[in-house]
Amino acid sequence: MFKWFVLLCVLALASAELQRIKIHRSEHKRDRRHVKQEVRSLRHKYQQLIQDYVIYDNGQPDYYSDYTEFTTEELGNSMNMYYYGQISIGTPPQYFNVVFDTGSANLWIPSAQCLSTDVACQQHNQYNSGASSTYVANNQNFSIQYGTGSVTGYLATDTVTINGLAIANQTFGEAVSQPGNSFTGVAFDGILGMGYLTIADDAVVPPFYNLYEQGLIDAPTFGFYLARNGTSEEGGQLVLGGVDVSLMSADLTYVPVSQEGYWQFSVDNISWNGYLLCEGCQAIADTGTSLIACPSVVYPQINQLIGAVLTDGSYYIPCDTLNSLPVLSFIIGGTTFELPASVYIQVFQEEGNTSCMSTFTDIGTEFWILGDVFLGQYYTQFDFGENRVGFAPLSN
Fold first, then answer.
1. pTM, whole model, 2 decimals?
2. How many CA atoms lie within 13 Å of 356's alpha carbon, on the beta-carbon side?
3. H/E element holding 260?
4. Could you say which residues form the signal peptide (predicted)?
């Protein structure tokens, strides 16, 4: 699908014209309910890779078996969980905020034909195919599973524009029904998946594939800067078609993708205060979640190490120990990347009380899922051309 080629060097990419996309950040406050909802959604995103598993809610089992020329777009962050930016669909353009999600590969947005009882749809921008002169009917249904049900609708084909780059004949999902309250009250309308075609539902070619194949960017690579402490307008950047060296304080450390589908790679080892948690383990870089999912065997170990106690299905530490906790160290491609406790512990202020929750979770995988808790500390490059992922410390 891609016109694959070997990229000559990082300097060649860096010298190309980049497309920079602003990422926005919602200032909604996140609470423990959001974390539990995200755990469910995360499990359903990776349901094909995990065995039957039980998620506990308030101590009760909750079963779920069913989320070269380069351009930059600024991103936004909803509840420190989702980073999103603006795209348009159709002629004339209809505008939507979408999560740029490396843990999935489909684009979907709400449809103007959604149910009047669909609260999430009614809260968001809706695509009206009848108002677009470039719309092409597809006549095929689609369904994507999430934590509380499935997004359902039908496929459509139209012009999708990202930062002025118009992708012709892009197929995407028009959602006529969204599950439960998974997408109510959030700052984005839909999701734009940036994973490999092999994980795309209905084998729909992802937008980034067509972005490169139609010659709109010079190289099949993109990078993320996710601002963890940004404002609603300055949540970070998505860089399309190359590497933005201005966002990095050192060179990228690249590791090969070990299995094409998700952005999966090998980690040399992960340790905490000298305690080895894994060696030669696998991890996935996922911009569509804020959590760090541990292998099931590691989950109780790491929470025990940080002094966390299980309460109502989540692990909490005494807040007065937060500043004394050591960093969590990841050695990737021979380079050490550290997470301080202020990152892997989430502090909540609720009803006058302060609680400190571990951001580590367990969804029944044998691999690690590194969400924005990790990715927000580093510039991350996703390179389809050479099937690799790169990390570098931020310049600010």
1. 0.87
2. 18
3. strand 253-260
4. 1-16
Q: Using CA atoms, how far apart are residues 292 and 362, in angstroms rounded to an integer?
A: 9
Residue 380 CA to residue 383 CA, distance in Å, equals 10
Q: b/e map of 310-336 (b: 16 or more CB within 10 Å)?
A: eeebbbbbeeeeeeebebbbbebbebe
Pick from 70, 278, 87: which is nearest to 164 by CA? 87
CA distance 336 to 246: 21
Q: Which of 8-12, 29-33, 62-66 has the highest mean pLDDT?
A: 29-33
- Amino acid identity at 103: G
Spatial distance between the Cα atoms of 154 and 167, rounded to a whole number of angstroms? 20
120-151 per-position pLDDT tens digit:
899 999 999 999 999 999 989 999 876 556 78
Could you tell me which residues come within 8 angstroms of residue 220 by beta carbon, excluding any fewer than 6 positions away?
Answer: 2, 4, 208, 212, 383, 384, 385
d(CA 224, CA 87): 17
H/E element, 210: helix 207-213
Cα dist. 311→23, 57, 60, 155, 308 in Å? 35, 10, 12, 43, 9
CA angle 281, 315, 368 (to 5 degrees): 15
Do 89 and 109 touch, CB atoms closer than 8 A? yes
The span from the CA of 391 to the CA of 117, in Å, is 44
Strand partners of residue 21 = 73, 238
For each of the domains in the chain, give its residue range(s) and CATH number, in order of start.
82-217 (2.40.70.10), 244-393 (2.40.70.10)
Which tokens belong to 48?
A: 């094909």
Q: Please tell me the number of Cα atoms within 13 Å of 153 on its side-chain side.
A: 28
Catalytic residue list: 101, 286
Looking at residue 326, its amino acid is P
Cβ contacts of residue 379 below 8 Å, gap of 6+? Answer: 223, 224, 225, 244, 247, 248, 252, 391, 392, 393, 394
